[in-house]
Amino acid sequence: MTDRDDEFDAPDDDLAERLADVDDELAEQRAAALRSGLEAYDLDEEDLDLLELSEEGEEGIRYLPALPVIAIVGRPNVGKSALVNRILGRREAVVEDTPGVTRDRVSYKGEYLDRRFTLVDTGGWEPDAKGIDASVAAQAEVAIDLSDVVLFVVDAMVGATATDERVVRMLRNANKPVFLVANKVDDARQEPEAAALWNLGLGEPYPVSALHGRGVADMLEAVFKVLPQVSAVAKDEFGGPRRVAILGRPNVGKSSLLNKAAREERVVVNELAGTTRDPVDEQIELGGKIWRFVDTAGIRRRVHLQQGADFYASLRTQAALEKAEVAVVLLDVSQPISEQDVRIIDLVLESGRALVLAYNKWDLLDDERRRYLEREIEQDLHHVQWAPRVNISAKTGRHLEKLVPALETALESWDLRIPTGKFNAFLTELTQEHPHPVRGGKQPRILFGTQAASRPPTFVLFTTGFLDPGYRRFIQRRLREIYGFEGSPIVINMRVRERRAR
């Protein structure tokens, strides 16, 4: 809070009580009178449209049939993610000319010739893998089990390797329809290389070029002849669960949180920072409700984002945030709150999403570190003191159930609408008690106010002059005191209008 904000902070404890006593009908009549007063001012077409806005309805949950699932598997660096992007017709999966870029099984919704499906990209499968590579291979095996059709991708220019033969044995045991995709066949002269893959015993190889798109349409036509209309293995889809993005710096515990909430090893967890690269979303039942959790790549300092897979992973994290409704920002309590943590929180505020702060590794906290932490929160996170706070341990699942009421509170605030009459009664009471200071011999007045949108709550004030930033922050604080808005940013915009010339 700046010194200038202090001049607006006179005690006003009974404002909420007076507003509660305002009759709804009286408030609407007062708002209509203020609205008619705007006719004396120059209003453009956009102003008039804004004043006529009607409230949006809430969307409920719709039950949808499970889309058929196509899993893409193979050893590292054969072009699986490039094939995913080619089938989807857009750049979704992170692609780099380095083995092992993809680590988790990542699901994407796709559509081809009016057929909708789920496409699952996987990390490279290797036999006898150790460490993180073993976790990546395990996720690929799970993807095969949870698919209706498998695309087995082989590098036609290299030919069948011992690893490819091991994958074939695993696929035979899975008892799924398998299509052998001979990738990197960029022209007709290279097709004899693909013919050599008949030796794998999986039937006819489909020569394709994921990079150029050659042969992909022919392969998909064959796939759709055996792909069921409704998946035999996937869960039923819910058409309206709230989308929750899990954000934080690398190695803070985001993937552990998703795994614990999903009650399975859904994503690869490793001590290596930056394990997750593609956003991984999962439909989860938590607290008796269905949620769509999205695990994202850790947002690194800008100096590390100049090139490579981590740069594209960060772009996809920001895209996942734009699709989410609420963000859970994880903070590692065993380390001081950093500038990076604050930057991630500010990214959520800029996106206009609801916010929940989850303090992870709480079970590792001692009394001394707790004292320092509270001081850091007061100093560095004062601007988001309205965000619900949950102390958890993603690794053990401690207090994970407290995440649900925090999410519900934040989303309820994010959806909240204040009737126009009530909002103008609030503004009238507020400006009578604390009028805007005189600046340069003029005192701006608020003529009328309306809530233009929710998600996030966005208010528009028609004024006779520019309002100080400190006064706008004062209005925000009073809105929070009276109406809550816990866990949601509040946007206040102004439209300065002059009286129409007679």
UniProtKB/TrEMBL annotation:
Q: Which InterPro entries match?
A: AAA+_ATPase, G_ENGA, GTP-bd, GTPase_Der, KH_dom-like, KH_dom-like_a/b, P-loop_NTPase, Small_GTP-bd
Record NCBIfam families: GTPase_EngA (TIGR03594), PRK03003.1 (NF002828), small_GTP (TIGR00231)
The keyword Nucleotide-binding appears for this protein? yes
Q: What are the protein's UniProt keywords?
A: GTP-binding, Nucleotide-binding, Repeat, Ribosome biogenesis
What GO annotations for molecular function exist for this entry?
GTP binding; ribosome binding
Under PANTHER family, the record lists: GTPASE DER
Tell me the residue numbers annotated for binding GTP 1: 74-81, 121-125, 183-186
Question: Which parts of the sequence bind GTP 2?
Answer: 248-255, 295-299, 360-363
Please, one GO biological process term?
ribosome biogenesis
| Function per UniProt | GTPase that plays an essential role in the late steps of ribosome biogenesis.
Q: What is this protein called?
A: GTPase Der
The residue ranges of the EngA-type G domain are 68-231, 242-415
Q: Which family does it belong to?
A: Belongs to the TRAFAC class TrmE-Era-EngA-EngB-Septin-like GTPase superfamily. EngA (Der) GTPase family.
Annotated membrane-spanning segments are none
Do you know which SUPFAM superfamilies this protein is assigned to? P-loop containing nucleoside triphosphate hydrolases
The record's note on quaternary structure and interaction partners says: Associates with the 50S ribosomal subunit.
